[in-house]
Amino acid sequence: MAKRLLTLIGFFMLVLLAACNAGGDQLPSQVNSANPIEWDRNPSTVVFRVDVTGGNGDPFLARNDIPPCTLYGDNHVVWTNELGPFETQVLEDRLTDDQIRQFVNYVALNEQIYRYPARKDNEPASAVTPVVETLTLFVNGVNHVIDAFAGWDVDYYVRLLKSCKDISIAPALYEPAAAWVSVQSVPYDPTSPGIFWDAQANGLNLAELAASGERRWLTDRNVRVIWNILRTSPPSVQFNEDNLPYHVTLEVPNITRDSPAAPSS
What we know:
Blueprint: H1 2-19, E1 46-53, E2 69-72, E3 76-84, E4 87-94, H2 97-110, E5 132-139, E6 142-147, H3 156-165, E7 172-173, E8 179-185, E9 194-196, H4 199-202, H5 206-212, E10 216-218, H6 221-231, E11 238-241, E12 244-251
Parallel strand pairs: 9-11
Antiparallel strand pairs: 1-2, 1-5, 2-3, 3-4, 4-7, 5-6, 8-10, 8-12, 11-12
């Protein structure tokens, strides 16, 4: 009886919040006591994401980027912890449906995410692309994306990021077993740290891959080796093969922001 009462209270709160959201997106009309919060179960679907986008950084190096926290359709949550300068820890967990529904209710009711619109595109254009905090919630067929131009509280983004990380009760360190590797030839930069790379010993020729201009799907030890280098180095780290410098990127499906899907078997 108590559980049913709480469900009815939650429903009426959703209705009340939707009625108060004039000027912004409404709560999904499908969210009610008879049809609870649902989401696309595809492992690549972003159900919730806390991110930072924009800036005039190198698009190639951006392939290495991992959003601060993402919840995917298969209940997989992935987030990062900055342990120190150029030392990023990546963690993951698998959640229950109840955990996700409780989190979505918190985001929708307590944090009132549907009150805020995305307003970045309403800002004047500039030569420098602004770095913008963004939040995404995609449930019940409504993909709601908002940004820092929406006028949220000064600590709103930080609260939502912490809440996303705190969904997990059994976090585990993440390390990929397979990934897309790309290589780009670059001018030597004496201010960037360098990693000596022996093509023959590692079984991966950077010059050859750079010349191809293509991604290569790897499943060997090089995935772990490159992953650990990138997580503990500045973004501009250079791999030195035969006295020639290269940038290397590692894209992991459903981990890095824009990775292609894994090749079909």
